[in-house]
């Protein structure tokens, strides 16, 4: 089934809206993780640096998806626009999966004085995950069975380590 540009735009708008909510949660989570560095019990907590880095990585992923959508909407002729969208969304999913183990290491160092911040971070991590998964659901709805075919192709690229 072929979609017209209005249907494509509708899905892209839904993806952007989901990511916008996730980006707001990411911004607050990033601020909290920066603040963790001034709390003596958390400053040297195992996992703090990788947790902060993985939150930032999610931010880069949001930017990548939004950039791909913007390029498409601006009429840029992108031969592999579907592949870019699947790659960006699935890479964002992978980045989000890195949050939990690193966060759990930091949370182990929590004290009663930092419990509120830890719980807020946990809540924000859940919000980020939910919004990313929502965006991916829209991407899958947009591309239908083609999503899995494209995903199999782009996974080889995802396995290349970042420099």
In terms of quaternary structure, the protein is single chain
| N- and C-termini, Cα separation | 40 Å
Structural class: mainly alpha
Overall geometric form: elongated
How does the major sheet shape up? none
CATH architecture name: Up-down Bundle
Percent helix:
over 70%
Please give the count of helices: 7
CATH superfamily membership, which one?
A: Alpha-catenin/vinculin-like
At the third CATH level, what is the topology name? Answer: Four Helix Bundle (Hemerythrin (Met), subunit A)
- Average pLDDT figure: 88
How many β-strands, per DSSP?
Answer: 0
Based on CA atoms alone, the radius of gyration comes out at 17 Å
Element order: H for helix, E for strand:
HHHHHHH
Summed up, what is this model?
The protein has 163 residues and is mostly helical. It contains seven helices and no strands.
Q: Can you tell me about this structure?
A:
Helices cover 80% and strands 0% of the residues. The chain is mostly helical and 163 residues long. The protein has a single domain (5-158), classed as Up-down Bundle (Four Helix Bundle (Hemerythrin (Met), subunit A)).
Strands, helices and their partners?
Blueprint: H1 5-36, H2 40-43, H3 48-73, H4 81-97, H5 99-107, H6 115-143, H7 146-158
Helix pairs in contact: 1-3, 1-6, 3-4, 3-5, 4-6, 4-7, 5-6
Features:
single chain, 163 residues, mainly alpha, Four Helix Bundle (Hemerythrin (Met), subunit A), 80% helix
